């Protein structure tokens, strides 16, 4: 407003009109009605406080003080900066709340006196707490009895008490686990914050624990299976070797004439029996060695092995058997 215009001592209605022309009034639908309401400030029985948000973004706080002679004082305070700071703070709080509520972990912050100050939605869901209880910012000592009802063993709530007490008092991070009555297992972690508070995080590790338990059970079953396999091999070795030894021994005795002279045909039969027994014994030894090697029960050999010589030796030892099998197949 120009000083010469103000010096003409304009009426209050004209002042409002000029302020409107200069975009110094809030936008209203019915300006004449709004102006008429403001003119009633002259006869107000008590001071009036009003807040104006102008089209330019300016935020004004207006204090109206009627005077005994029928006039009034208008005191304007520019609160634009404070309003911007408050808006930024509200935005930051909303962003923080939205961030916390969408985390996989349950989060809660306890003040130095033990009072709950910040929490997210997952923390309330895990412990079955409603917002009305949490909004009172209770101390964790007052919450423990309620939280204990959610655990598989109520006595385990002492773990949570110790974690929070040690973190708040000694400023030391702590970790532990809790099993809930629903079967879920949570990993707890408490961390001291620079402002003296303590951060509690809860992460659901149920799947990891179940996988670990399944692997342990599978390992136990495999160990039991190996034990059964070992006992079976030992028993099979005994059950087969004993009669084979007897057969070979009796065949040698018959061949030596212990039961009398044998005919050439009988000697041929006895030789066939002894040969078959030896062959069967070799086959059993091969199966047992292979089974023990597959199970890792054979001691490792540290001697160098000539592969060519080993193959020639095996071929030579099995040549006659291979020829016989070939002749039997061709016949």
Description:
The structure is a single chain. The protein is an alpha+beta fold and 331 residues long. It folds into 3 domains: 3-84, no CATH class; 103-204, PAS domain (Beta-Lactamase), CATH 3.30.450; 210-311, Orthogonal Bundle (Helix Hairpins). The chain has helices spanning 3-7, 12-21, 31-39, 80-101, 121-127, 131-134, 140-148, 157-170, 206-255, 264-294, 307-317, 319-330; strands at residues 48-53, 59-66, 72-78, 106-110, 116-119, 174-179, 185-192, 198-204. The strands form 2 sheets. It has a 5-stranded antiparallel β-sheet with strand order 5-4-8-7-6, sandwiched between helices. It has a 3-stranded antiparallel β-sheet with strand order 1-2-3. A hairpin with a 5-residue loop joins strand 4 and strand 5 (116-119). Helix 7 packs antiparallel against helix 8 (157-170) and helix 9 runs antiparallel to helix 10 (264-294). The chain is rod-shaped and about 160 Å long.
How are the strands ordered across the major sheet? 5-4-8-7-6
Tell me the series of helices and strands, N- to C-terminal: HHHEEEHEEHHHHEEEHHHH
**Class from helix and strand fractions:** alpha+beta
Specify the number of helices.
12
Which whole number gives the mean pLDDT? 84
Kindly report the CATH topology of the largest domain: Beta-Lactamase
